[in-house]
Amino acid sequence: MVEQQLVEQTVAHPPDEGGRRSLRRDVSLPALLAGLVCIVVSFSGPLVVVLAAAAAGKLDPAHTASWIWAVSVGSGATCLLLSWWTRTPVITAWSTPGAALLVTSLGAYPYREAVGAFLVSGVVVALFGITGLFGRLIRAVPAGIVNAMLAGILFSFGTGIFTALHAAPVLVLGTFAAFLLAKRLAPRYAVPVALVAGGVLAAVTVGLPLHLGDAGGPTRPLLTVPAFSWPSLVGLALPLTIVALASQNAPGLGVLRAFGYRPDDRLLIGVTGGVSVLLAPFGSPGINIAAITAAICAGPESHPDPRRRYVAGMSAGALYLLVGSFGGVLVSLFTGLPKELIAVIAGVALLASLQGSLAAAVAEEQGRDAAVVTFLATASGMSLFGIGSAFWGLLLGVATHLLLHARRPSPGRLPT
Questions:
Q1: To the nearest whole number, what is the mean pLDDT of the chain?
Q2: DSSP classification of residue 287
Q3: Which of 62, 295, 302, 366 could disulfide-pair with 34, CB 3.0 to 4.6 Å?
Q4: Which of the residues in the chain have pLDDT under 50?
Q5: Residues near 177 by Cβ (< 8 Å), separated by ≥ 6?
Q6: How far is the C-alpha of 110 from the C-alpha of 226, rounded, in Å?
Q7: What is the CA radius of gyration of the chain?
Q8: What confidence score (pLDDT) does residue 262 get?
Q9: Residue 262 and residue 110: Cα distance in Å, rounded?
Q10: Could you give the dihedral angle defined by the CA atoms of residues 110, 377, 241 and 91, in that order, rounded to the nearest 10 degrees?
Q11: Alpha-carbon gap, residue 186 to 188, rounded angstroms
Q12: How far apart (Å, rounded) are the C-alpha atoms in residues 36 and 6?
């Protein structure tokens, strides 16, 4: 309690420029290592989901590398600057659930229209952040419906672990077993351990043809001129915006508050939304406040003194910039992984998000009908009028909720 009060006072009343804490004095090895762990987790599991989305959109290696460069540089710059400015361990990242949405939707639209949807989503997120409408949006749609939509998006990744069994049973079962064992002994490193174990098993069983090719140098970002269409705006931009705000930024801010910080949501969401707009033409679907990796840097493992944990956020930001600048190398390495290994790594990386969204979707008995409708419609992969299932799941869920729970008008008094 004392720690929480101390952090709240520090963040609520930040010192002026002359009284700012000295970065040189606050740097510590645990904080630097926390930033390193954050990057390892980010680039081991969630990156596989991004690559799966790029493959679904039929992007070539150059555009895929540009996408990784954009999300990495955007995450690095915002981590570094926001952590330094607010003296809070602000961790930002691309949205893994958002990338999962793109796996099921990106291939339905021309890439230029997808970039246009990314740009519009960034503008909307920034406006909701700057104007303070973020909280109102979160309260407008029942949380169960939003979580059910997210669960429907992630459902195919969970089942993908087991549908890959017939092609490479030793690889899939061994990787999954390594994940579960690490989850028991060292939960923070479960996904990286699964990736390493899976790589070893792949090399032994089905082969691991990794190569760098001509991608050894820094990435050259590719600019794509955005195009706009109603189907892409409704089918991509709208679900991406909702996922970014409700399933990414809201939990991310919640993690910081849980550790006693009082983040300025207008500043954090406004800045990340603005950076998303700038990087959308290079392939970035959005930069958001992180949740899982934020807990690594905001917790006591980063530093016993909560006022010195912002260094972990800066460390993560610097490493994001370094690693992301060589996105072509990452693409070359990861595209050499067998598809069965990618399926199981993506599945285990999203397992926590899936179980959390499922639990939240049915937490309230009154909203379960609408949540189930949303989940089934989204997981079905249906498409109508060129618009993907995430939007229709959300729309049908809200309609179900209104139909079942809308207040009936009070009958007027009978004349006497």
A1: 80
A2: E
A3: 302
A4: 1-19, 414-416
A5: none
A6: 10
A7: 22
A8: 86
A9: 41
A10: -110
A11: 6
A12: 26
Phi and psi at 256, nearest 5°, equal -60, -40
Kindly state the tokens that stand for 249: 């930024």
Residue type, 254: G
- Looking at residue 223, its pLDDT comes to 92
Question: How crowded is residue 84: how many other Cβ atoms within 10 Å of its Cβ?
Answer: 17
Burial of 162 (0-12, 13-18, 19+ CB in 10 A): middle
Q: Are 368 and 144 in contact (CB under 8 A)?
A: yes
Is residue 335 within 8 A of residue 358, CB to CB? The reply is no
pLDDT at 4: 47
Q: Closest by alpha carbon to 204, among 171, 182, 179? A: 171
The two structure tokens encoding residue 1: 């309690």
- pLDDT value for 75: 94
205: alpha, beta or left? (left if phi > 0; alpha if psi -120 to 50): alpha
C-alpha torsion sign, points 55, 57, 61, 63 = negative
pTM of this prediction exceeds 0.85: no
Please compute, for residue 104, the number of CA atoms within 13 A of its CA located in the half-sphere on the CB side: 27
Residue 180: per-residue pLDDT = 92
User: Quick one: 15 exposed, middle or buried, by C-beta within 10 A (0-12, 13-18, 19+)?
Assistant: exposed
Determine what percent of the chain falls in helix, strand and coil, rounding each to the nearest 5: 75, 0, 25
CA distance 163 to 169: 10
Only one residue has tokens 């809200």, namely 398
Place of tokens 């269409």: 229
- Residues with Cβ within 8 Å of 105's Cβ and at least 6 positions away in sequence, in order, are 235, 236, 239, 388, 390
Q: Provide the pLDDT for residue 215.
A: 53
Looking at residue 332, its pLDDT comes to 65
- Residue whose pair of structure tokens reads 């801010």 in the numeric block: 253
Cα gap 254→298, rounded to integer Å: 11
Q: What is the pLDDT of residue 160?
A: 84
Going 71 to 183 to 103 to 125, the CA torsion angle's sign is negative
Residue 270, C-beta contacts closer than 8 angstroms, at least 6 positions apart: 126, 129, 130
- What's the number of CA atoms in the CB half-sphere (13 Å) around residue 200? 8
CA distance 335 to 128: 36
